[in-house]
Design goal:
Largest sheet: 6 strands, mixed
Number of domains: 1
Number of strands: 14
Helix content: 10-25%
């Protein structure tokens, strides 16, 4: 499958590169015709730093942020984003402030939780939700419910790739979107035309990667 990958470069920052693979893929909530691979962005420190620099532009000068909640293995990007938003020499509202970078835990019922020692970083705080990929928005829904439960105030949603523009009235800022992949499609399981054509599913995918079938 590796030979099928194509590269997509971020507008305004060619150092941030997304790898995409056409095919038939199953997520937890839908079927898609592209696998969007973010391995290099999430786990390579150089590209993660460039991605964070690109993301920070949406929040400099305008949005006080106390906490970044990272989903789908985005902690490296989240750390650089906090650094970018608070660094000296930038006319930023968060300059010199402390920004916590945290990740939720899942209990035995699959519910997102924060332990007692982490809850003060969410309770009453301005929260930026950082997610790798958003196709249907269901992961964002679960995250927003969790943050609301712990009395966090979501001031922004950032994604590496998003197929939707907003959720619950909150704009989703993303480095890549469907303008970068104009023929990207997502389908409900029962409505997938690729299944109707009996095309084999290439892999099961999520924000962490893919597993071939």
């Amino acid at each position: 499958m590796q030979e099928r990958f194509m590269k997509v470069y971020a507008k305004g920052n060619k150092k941030v590169v997304l790898q995409v693979m056409p095919g038939h893929f199953a997520t937890n909530h839908s079927h898609v015709n592209y696998y969007v691979d973010m391995t290099g962005i999430k786990y390579g420190h150089k590209m993660a730093k460039e991605a964070a620099r690109t993301m920070a532009k949406a929040y400099i000068n305008s949005t006080p942020i106390n906490t970044i909640i990272c989903m789908d293995g985005c902690e490296v990007v989240g750390g650089f984003l906090a650094q970018e938003l608070t660094r000296n020499g930038v006319n930023a509202i968060n300059q010199d402030q402390e920004i916590h970078v945290i990740t939720p835990e899942y209990n035995m019922n699959g519910q997102m939780i924060f332990r007692d020692n982490i809850q003060p970083m969410v309770w009453g705080k301005n929260v930026l939700l950082l997610i790798a990929s958003c196709t249907t928005g269901k992961t964002i829904n679960r995250s927003l419910e969790c943050i609301k439960y712990y009395n966090g105030n979501v001031v922004g949603i950032d994604a590496i790739f998003s197929a939707i523009d907003a959720k619950d009235g909150i704009k989703i800022s993303s480095i890549f979107n469907t303008n970068d992949l104009p023929d990207y499609k997502t389908y409900a399981f029962k409505d997938c035309p690729l299944c109707a054509e009996k095309k084999k599913i290439d892999a099961i995918v999520n924000g962490y990667g893919y597993s071939r079938l």
